[in-house]
Amino acid sequence: MERDIEQLNSALNSIKTLRSNVRQVFESVSNGLRADHGEEGKENKFIIELQDLLTTVNNNLRDVESAVSNLTPPPGAFSLGNTTYLGQETTQERQALYGQLVNSYKWTDKIREYSALAGNILATNSFNKTYKTFSTTKRRKTQTSNHNVSPEVIENLITSIDRLFPDVTITASRPFLPNPVIQACLGRVLKAIIAFKGLMIEWVVVKALSESNDLWSESRYKVFRKVTENCHAAMCHFHSPMMPELAVRSFMHWFHSYNTLFSAPCKRCGNHLLGNLPPTWRDLRTLEPYHEECK
Question: Principal place where this protein is found (predicted)?
Fold first, then answer.
């Protein structure tokens, strides 16, 4: 395989050299007699120069024929079935379809070849050792699911969050026993209706203070719809089944940064409004405000 590639490169280089020298022949013929040929015998000098160029081209042509003869011929014609009739189209646009199909089939063959090689490499990596390690370890006591916890645990979590942020007013209800739905009012800026499933946040919707507390209807204001979308992203970012209480506190700490929704300028552009909207995104680490276009 490697030898075939070297021979193909040699043939291509020979063709490249031939094309370059043929171009020099045509340039010499088009320029005709030049000043550097002198005044005496300039016709003979031009003919001798042209003969030398043609001799070089003849030698290059022999090199091309020799390099092509060393190439391995393909096993057979590359057939695409009835698509070969596309090459007989009279319109210029349809004539190019056959070449594109050939390239796509070649690309697919390469993908299949590389996939087979990757499969063989992955097959050599045995996972038996890891499997045995986990299978021989002592089984631990099954932990209680984060979705199935006592109401007291959830109540303690909500109380700790309420104490952590004095400027956030939290009221809880339990329409879906035992899972609570809390309403977190962030000063006079906005409110969030947060539905829990055990110790994990399942849904968040952000609205204006004057809007309803319906969990399933979105706000009629675009700014709060944008904040709701960002809350969903943050909810997935802070999700941690192994440490659910820390995940909830981290989310609430990030949500608390929206107390400056209408007062803090964008950290990147320095403007308060962009597209008639304030910075509706808060960085997940630094909590700095950004516009949707600036984050």
Answer: nucleus
Write out pLDDT tens, residues 242-266.
888 999 999 999 999 999 999 999 9
Domain that holds residue 9: 2-69
Token pair in block for residue 235: 């909810």
Residues 261, 168: one domain?
yes
pLDDT in tens, 45-90: 888 888 888 899 899 888 888 888 887 776 655 555 666 565 565 5
CB atoms within 10 A of CB 116: 10
Neighbours of 13 (CB within 10 A): 13
Helix, strand and coil in the chain, % to nearest 5: 55, 15, 35
CA separation for the pair 185, 168 (Å, rounded): 6
Domain-embedded: residue 101:
no
pTM of the prediction? Answer: 0.51
Domain identity same for 168 and 281: yes
Joined tokens for residue 61: 């042509």
Contacts 24+ apart (CB under 8 A), 119-128: none
103 belongs to a structural domain:
no
Q: Which residues pair with 183 in a beta bridge?
A: 171, 193
The answer to whether the beta carbons of residues 123 and 116 sit under 8 Å apart is no
For the packed helices 151-164 and 244-256, what is the interaxial angle rounded to 10 degrees?
30
Strand, helix or coil at 219?
A: coil
Do the domain assignments include residue 123?
no
Of 68, 61, 59, nearest to 7 by C-alpha is 68
